[in-house]
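2024-03-11 09:14:02 INFO receiving multi-entity request
2024-03-11 09:14:02 INFO entity count = two
2024-03-11 09:14:03 INFO echoing inputs for audit
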Amino acid sequence: MPKWGMVIDLDKCTACQACVVACKQENNVPSGHLDDAAKARGEVHRDHDIFWMRVLTQAKGEYPKPEIEFLPRPCQHCEKPPCVSVCPVEATYRNEEGLVLQRYDRCIGCRYCMVACPYGVRNFNWHEPEYPMPQALSPAASVDSDGNGRGPQPRVRGIVEKCTFCIQRIEEAKRKAQAEGRPLKDGDVQTACMQTCPPTAIVFGDLDDPNSRVSKLRTDRRAFRLLEDLGTNPRVTYLSEG
Amino acid sequence: MFCYRIYYDKNYPHLYLATDWMWAFTRRDFIKVAGAATAGTAAYLTLKRYPPVLRAAAQPPTPNGGSAPKVTTVPGVCIQCPAGCGILVRTVEENGVRRAIKIEGNPANPNNLGKICPKGQIGLQILYDPDRIKGPMKRAGKRGEGKWTQISWDQAISEVADHLRKLRERGEPHKLAILSGRLRGQSGGLNGRFLTAYGSPNDVGHSSICADGTPQAHYAAMGFKSYSGFDWDNTKYLISFGGSFVEAWRPTTRLLRAYGTMRRGTPVRAKIVSVDARMGITAAKADEWVSIKPQTDGAMALAMAHVIVRDKLYDEKFLREHTDAPSLVAEGKLLVKNVEEEKDGKKTTYSLYTVWDEAAQKTAVWSTKTLAYDPPATKSALMGEYTVEGKKAHTVLQLWWDEVLKEATPEWAEKITGVSVETIERLARELATTKSAVAAGERGVSMQTNAVYSRIAVLALSALIGSIDTPGGITVQKGPPLKAWPAVKQDDIAKKGVAQPRVDYAGTETYPMAGKVYQDIPDRILEGKPYELDTIFHHYTNPLFSTPDPERFYRAYEKLPGLIVTFSPYMDETSAYADYILPDHTFLERWQDDTIYPSVGFPIQGLREPAVQPLFDTKNVWETLILLAKAIGGTVGESFPWKDAEDLLKSTYQGIYDSKKGIMGLGGKKVADMKSFDEFWSEFVKTGVWTDPPYTFGEWKRVLATGSGRFEFLSGNLEHKLEDLAKKKAQKENISEHDALEKIAEGLQLQARGEALFLPHWEPPRYAGDEARYPLHLVTYKLMAHAEGRGANTPFLQENLGPHVREKWDTWVEINPVTAHHLGIANGDPVWVESQVGKLQTRAVLFEGARPDTVNMPFELGHRVYGRWAKGRGVNPNEIMANVNDRLGGLEAFSATRVKVYRAEGPPPARPAMEVRSHA
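2024-03-11 09:21:47 INFO inference complete, emitting structure
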């Protein structure tokens, strides 16, 4: 059973946001409510624009030596996810491969999970999702063992959505490997963000496989995880700059 | 608690009340949710609210197969910047309709290796923009009134062709101009061919408002007039003057990729230094940001050269073998002999440059025929004064030192640039002593009032350290072996028309080194000099938005007697002002090729092919031009023998098949193994890319195409051009050549005289606006999400606009907090930014990355039209920029405008101050 994880090298990251846009296109992520998004200068209305992958910015220091740090932030897919334990209807759950997922048709929109998530990766559909170019929506779909859809299907108003580590791509890769009669190998699954990342800062793979690139990079001396003291045990590892 | 730190905003407490959505969620909907959940199927409440295409997408997925839509992948080439990255367009076919759902990088293209930047990712929003122009249109009301009549293509072509035919019959074909922008593949050649056949010299590309200073510097010092490539993967030290390495420099994806390699892809982490008037993402990601006063990069580069020459840190071998540094100059003239040789009835000339042999203590020569010294063991002197044939002679490097560098000390540069002596000394030393180091520069240095000389100074730094055509250094891009088109046919009218002077004065004493001066077109129209233009075509360009002080264009175009024609698929400002719109397909609907932007060195050709059927009644602009030419008839029509775009491409790419060179993308078939052109073509359509790696270093005849076959600090091309113009002027005005050159230099507002005119030297910058009245410099810049001026209609780019200041969907002005404090401006305040040209209201963003004497504004927004997402959003800094040029190169100076900033009247904006979001 693979154990999916991701490594993001902040020294390679250029804050170009290709990952952000690729994720939106791949996963049919709506542009929030367009009227609000259009009004939204800065992130005041941030609850109205939806990103599964965001590049966070932190500015420090003063002229002439200011610093700006950038941090691409997908769902951390914690091994002990606070969002799962608080969900009253089991809409948020952790699947057998360790992906933290959302059953859209179970979600009652209480947003308890959004309060619980220390990383702020969850997004609420305050309005009917609006797609600026509906013709470009992906029909790729994914269903879990209960028959619940998750992944890039269009969502509705009043539910929470978040990064799935591109579960439809994981399943597509599995189907392909099965058809070819071979086990999954490192590099078979590429999330949309990893696939497009020009400086190859994002690496995705199986943490159970000691020879996978993610496993190796996770032991780098630059490796750290976000808010490690909370004990959420995130599956996204960052490599620090410099 | 974290959630509060991350999300809670005391100004917007209502966002956290559950009631406002619960009321909106009706009881009936709730029952549906409950029902759906118990049934355990993926039912979607609001399916009916989606458009039909989406309804299909939203069908409950079937766990075991079902009728999955047919997915196909079509190769193509991105067009959101001029890089030419290969893409793969994922399309699905449902009910006989094919639609594109995702764009990915093409791994077979060595330029981007399967990666693409955010601009590449948004391609589908270019295709499916709901505000695209749906078919040819003719103006019904006054210009710019917005009243249109839909017409047929037949009518559009015949009416425009009629007008053009009449213009020819009047003997005035030169009054047609084509303004052009993003010309890819054969587009540029086709425009030029149309004008040549028709009879006009006015092919006006937009590079003079892009970064044309770089090609001009290359032409002056290295003899080729285009951008250069760089061997980034091996670069260990980069000092970038005004180049947004990871934002807007090109080719974007290649640079982003190289950034990853420079940081972590090689055993030694490269050092990156960004010399820039603003801190952007490039400076933030660099190891060091050197804040420099706008338009003074040249002074810093010269001071660094001073340190390198003073301390003899230069690469002696490279200077001897591949530069003119050892050539001797006596009495202001290079000591050179031209030799004529006749071989097999063919006359060839080559030159012998005199140098001083240090070992033998006598003169020796450098031959451009063999690119070697005679005698070969010559150890040429780089510095010093020698007596040759009784005359005192200096080496070129000595001349440069005496005329320019001696005075250009770090102390001198500190006063001009604001960069400390210590920094300049240290960076010069680091640059010169690190192996595989390179000094590079782009728009920040190449688009200033002193652009050409400043850019040559930066290039000269690379030459001093021998970083030209070496691993980690500057490379010169090779072209593809395409088949030449049959010669253009011209009648007498066309010949006469083409012989007319260019309307933009490019290449004359007004703008000697310029190839085109796009931003001056309205001034020429308003003056009616050198003649009145009649008709202007616009090919992938929007001057009414993207030129400084665009009001000039509005005034000029109001006067234009003939037609304003655009080929834009979008209602941009120029199209809204046009008489005819003949809309092009978008890049995912048409046949077009693409020659890579100079980068990897070896040639790469990409192919755009229709990923989906054209959505509207649009036409490939190549075919529009062919149809127009045929409708005009005569030799004009005969010059265009092709049926359509695909036909044109096939006949052009026959050349690659005939050459038998290269492969069809990485891992693709070899052209040499192919049996027929049809096989080649079908393979090209399948992979979308042809390439011929690897790049070979050391082809000096190709790399250094100057008269001397060497890198020229003392530029022969500059000298010839200026002296040629002086000669003509002297004859015309009956004055001495010396006086004529003096007059020309004066007209170009140059301070230097004599030999210094042809050497990289310092020209004090000019600024528009009085310093007392307008105390701040305005620096305009391009964002990653900018798509080179064409990204405002894409929501996905809009919502990612300015990550360094966390801004989106609007324009802002970055002000240093100290400056803002003195001006009484708080973060988020509405402010006026005013120059001598006009004023704009926008919002202040207090930003430590802004210099205290400078405010920064991004390009991108401020459209008057351009679709629902762009119209009326933000402001366009072009509207307050003065049209100030580098006269030598005809280059727009983008940081020459001075402004003042003051708080706008009215209530404070609805937006509270940003809080910094913490991630750890």
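2024-03-11 09:21:48 INFO post-check: The radius of gyration of chain B is 29 Å.
2024-03-11 09:21:48 INFO post-check: Chain B touches chain A through 113 residues (CB under 8 Å).
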